[in-house]
Amino acid sequence: MPPKIAPQAEARRQMEICNACRYCEGFCAVFPAMTRQKAFADGDLTHLANLCHNCRGCYYACQYTEPHEFALNIPAALAEVRADSWERLARPRALARLFQTHGTAMAALAVVALAFFFWALAALRPAEGAGFYAHLAHNTMIAIFIPAFLAPLALIALSLRDYWHEVGGGRIRLSHLFQALHAAARMKNLSGGHGEGCNFEDADRFSDRRRQFHHLMMYGFLLCFASTASGTVMHYAFAWEAPYPLWSPPKLLGIPGGLMMVAGAAGLAWLKTKADPALGAARVWGGEMAFILLLGSVALTGLALYAATGTGLVGPLLAIHLATVLVLFLLMPFSKMVHGFYRLAALVAEAGKPAPAGGGE
């Protein structure tokens, strides 16, 4: 068996060949960025890998894929470097590598364990309270979830600092942020080289479905986050405590957001089963699927909890929902959740770099 080639070494070989050809120059942000140099340092490859959205259009347009002796597979090569960067820069690194290869089992076991934990906490329920707070005191929720949210964000911030240094990110300007956010909001790099979509799930057939499901997931998540934020403001600024009626901001934002997340998760999981695993980082397939299922479970259990209002199912459903949310928070630095942070950082870094050779965008 031939020795295993490091992800960076194989990606460097392929990108140097790709840079000499440049047939795919207009496909996404990777290819114009590629033209800045003729040789690629590890930091350059990390930057290109996190710009890549794995749309796979370049693979099907390439004349040097197998059976050609060059055997180019840019989507897989960059996917390996991208996954390596998330794992290598995470703290602790071992936990990130474990989740990428055993993510489904880890997430499932953690949800079950924490569901029992929240169910046991219900024995300490307050003497008074309505809605969720009849099962778990508000202060108890705050004491658990604030550290569980802020601590992973701090770990991600440290990882992003190291990432920024590695890729040679410069001074950040507002114009760079706006440019990056604009590209991220439109999922510009999932539109394909000709704006017809990508080739993720159906070989050389163009499709916009992956972009649409990503939009559902991203904007659904943002709506749910806004729902939680509005409830926090109502609780502390206006002394308006939960449960909230249907016409209130938490419900008007959270219900559509939850439905969008469920639809997005179902669609992305379906597309992932149809996609060719050889065009991605096959070893992290389980971790990526676990992340999609975890996001969908957070939304689905939240909607089920709302539907069960006033019934005896509220207690067990609350324990399951809180467990899934807590697992999502705790695993943020180690799951594919970090891809949003890294990809936005890559887009910001790209906006601040000099124009590529040849005037590419």
Indicate the topology.
Elements (H helix, E strand, L loop, with lengths): L6 H15 L8 H5 L7 H10 L5 H5 L12 H16 L3 H29 L16 H29 L7 H13 L22 H30 L10 H26 L10 H23 L6 H17 L7 H15 L9
Helix pairs in contact: 1-5, 3-5, 3-13, 5-6, 6-11, 6-12, 7-13, 8-13, 9-10, 10-11, 11-12
Protein name: Tricarballylate utilization 4Fe-4S protein TcuB
Keywords: Membrane, Transmembrane, Transmembrane helix
Organism: Paragemmobacter ruber
Describe this structure in words.
The protein is an all-alpha fold. It folds into 2 domains: 79 residues, no CATH class; 262 residues, Fumarate Reductase Cytochrome B subunit (Up-down Bundle), CATH 1.20.950. Helices cover 65% and strands 0% of the residues. The protein is built from 13 helices and no strands. It is elongated. The model has no long low-confidence stretch (mean pLDDT 88).
From the structure above, extract its key features.
13 helices, 361 residues, 2 domains, mainly alpha, Fumarate Reductase Cytochrome B subunit, single chain
